[in-house]
Design a protein that fits this description.
Blueprint (H helix, E strand, L loop, with lengths): L8 E3 L5 E3 L4 E5 L6 H4 L5 E7 H14 L4 E7 L8 H10 L6 E5 L2 H13 L4 E5 L11 E6 L2 E6 L5 E5 H5 L3 H12 L1 H15 L5 H15 L2 H5 L3 H21 L8 H16 L6 H20 L12 H12 L3 H11 L7 H6 L1 H8 L5 H10 L4 H19 L9 H9 L1
Parallel strand pairs: 3-10, 4-5, 4-6, 6-7, 7-10
Antiparallel strand pairs: 1-2, 8-9
Helix pairs in contact: 3-4, 6-10, 6-12, 7-16, 8-10, 11-12, 11-18, 12-17, 12-19, 13-14
The structure holds zinc ion (2 copies).
C-alpha cells in the first residue's frame, strides 16, 4: 500500500469530498533523514518527548535539527498522563514564537503535541516510536479531563516520521496492541454496515473497502510480528496510519471504532475512575472484538425477533449510576439527548431481519478470532480473569451508553438484555 497516494482531496463515488491534510508520511528505515527538508520553513521548534522516547529517538531528532532554533522538552514523569497539568507544562515549555511542535512518542506524547499545537494554532509533526494504535493520523486528541477520558477534535499532524528500525524494537506489548487495534476493524466495519441498514446511516464503500484492505494486509502477520520482522512491522504501521487517513476522509472515527472500541473505552474509563487495571488500548479492542462476535453469533441463532424484556428507564438509570459512579451524570445526559431509548428499533429489526442477519454473518467466527488472538501470543483467558464475568457483562450491556454511535451493542441490548 502506498500511503502517500492517500494524502489527497478527491470527490468520491459516495458523493462526498474526502480529504486528508497530512502533507507527508515516511515509514522506512532512517525516517529522521527527512526532518531537515520538512522543517525548513519553520523558525522556532519545540520538541516534546518523555524520558523513554527521548532515549529511543531523541538524539536522532536533535541531530536532524542542528542549525535550527529549537528546544527539547522532556517530561520527567514515570507515568505521563495527558491531563490539564501536562498540557500546562508543555505549553509553558514552548519557546517564544514556536511555530512548530515535533512530538516523539506514540500515545500520550502524540495526544499532548496534537492538543497543544491545535490550541496554539501551529502545526505539529509526530515521530512515531511504536506501532501501537491507529491515532497517528487522526484528528482526535484523547485527553484525561477531570478524571474522565475525553476525545477532543483537534488536527492531524503535518508530517509523520516512522523509522521501522525503531518500531520493530518497540515493546512487544505495544506491537500486540497495534495488531489488535487493526483486527478490531472486523467488528467496527460490520457495525458501520449494520448502522447503515438499521438507521440509514451514511456509509462510504470506498472508505469501508480501504479500511478492510488495511485489515487484510495485517491479519496473517501475527507470527512475523512476534519475530519483529521489519517488513511485517512496516505493513502494520502503514495499516495504522492508513486507518487514521480513512477516519480523516469520513470526518469521524466511524470506519475505525465501533462496539469493540466502546467496550475497550468502558474498561479504560472505569479503570481510570476506579483505579482498576486495564489492558493496552488495542489489546482490549482485540479481546472485546471476540466478545462482540460472540454477540453476533447469539443474534444470528435467535429463533424469533422480539424484545427480550420490558425496558424500564428507572432501572436503567439505577444501573448506570451503580456502574459509572462519578461519570454517570454525563452518560445519562448523553443518552437523554440521543433519545434512542424512547424509540425502540424493534419494528425495523423485524422488517429487515434477513438483511441484518446476512450482515452479522460477514465477520469471521469467534473461533477464527480466537486463532488470530493466539497468533499474536495473546490469550482470551487473560481478559476473562482480569475483568471477571460481571464487568464484562456490564460492558456488553452498558458500554454503548458512553457513546452516541449505533453498533451491535444496541441490537443485542434490545433483543437479548
Ligand atoms: Zn466516499
Ligand atoms: Zn483504536
Amino acid at each position: 500500500m502506498d500511503i502517500k497516494s492517500l494524502l489527497k482531496t478527491f470527490t468520491c463515488s459516495c458523493g462526498k469530498e474526502h480529504s486528508c491534510d497530512i502533507k507527508n508520511v515516511f515509514i522506512e528505515k532512517d525516517a529522521a533523514k527527512y526532518i531537515p527538508e520538512c522543517v525548513k520553513d519553520y523558525k522556532t521548534i519545540t520538541v516534546a518527548c518523555d524520558k523513554n522516547t527521548y532515549g529511543v529517538y531523541g538524539k536522532e531528532v536533535e541531530n536532524a535539527l542542528i542549525g535550527k532554533n529549537f528546544k527539547t522538552y522532556i517530561f520527567p514523569d514515570e507515568l505521563l498522563v495527558p491531563d490539564e497539568n501536562a498540557i500546562e507544562r508543555l505549553t509553558s515549555a514552548l519557546l517564544p514564537d514556536t511555530d512548530l511542535i515535533i512530538g516523539i512518542g506514540s500515545g500520550v506524547i502524540q495526544d499532548l503535541s496534537k492538543y497543544v499545537s491545535f490550541d496554539k494554532k501551529i502545526p505539529y509533526h509526530i515521530v512515531a516510536t511504536a506501532p501501537s494504535m491507529d491515532g497517528y493520523a487522526s484528528k482526535g486528541a484523547a485527553m484525561i479531563t477531570g478524571n474522565m477520558k475525553v476525545t477532543y477534535n483537534a488536527h492531524v499532524p503535518e508530517v509523520i516520521y516512522a523509522d521501522t528500525e525503531v518500531l520493530k524494537n518497540a515493546p512487544m506489548d505495544m506491537i500486540k496492541s497495534g495488531y489488535g487495534d487493526i483486527i478490531g476493524k472486523y467488528s467496527c466495519l460490520n457495525d458501520w454496515k449494520l448502522a447503515n441498514i438499521v438507521n440509514s446511516e451514511y456509509l462510504c464503500d470506498y472508505i469501508y473497502n480501504l479500511t478492510f484492505d488495511m485489515l487484510l494486509s495485517v491479519k496473517d502477520s501475527g507470527a512475523k510480528l512476534l519475530a519483529r520482522d521489519e517488513d511485517a512491522i512496516k505493513k502494520l504501521m502503514e495499516a495504522l496510519v492508513g486507518v487514521g487517513i480513512a477516519m480523516a476522509y469520513s470526518g469521524n472515527s466511524r470506519p475505525a471504532s465501533g462496539s469493540e472500541h466502546h467496550m475497550s473505552h468502558f474498561f479504560e474509563v472505569l479503570g481510570i475512575l476506579k483505579n482498576e487495571p486495564y489492558f493496552m488500548h488495542g489489546t482490549d479492542v482485540l479481546y472485546s472484538a471476540y466478545y462482540t462476535e460472540k454477540m453476533r453469533e447469539e443474534l444470528i441463532a435467535l429463533p424469533e425477533v422480539k424484545a427480550n424484556s420490558e425496558f424500564s428507564k428507572e432501572e436503567w438509570k439505577k444501573k448506570i449510576l451503580s456502574i459509572y459512579d462519578a461519570a454517570s451524570e454525563g452518560v445519562i445526559a448523553l443518552q437523554e439527548k440521543m433519545g434512542w431509548y424512547e424509540e425502540p428499533k424493534l419494528p425495523v429489526y423485524k422488517e429487515k431481519w434477513d438483511e441484518i442477519k446476512a450482515c452479522l454473518k460477514e465477520v469471521p467466527t469467534s473461533k477464527e478470532l480466537l486463532g488470530l488472538i493466539e497468533s499474536i501470543g495473546l490469550d482470551i483467558k487473560e481478559f476473562d480473569s482480569l475483568y471477571g464475568e460481571e464487568k464484562i457483562k456490564n460492558a456488553i450491556y452498558y458500554a454503548k451508553d458512553l457513546k452516541d454511535r449505533y453498533s451491535v451493542l444496541w441490537l443485542y441490548y434490545e433483543l437479548m438484555a
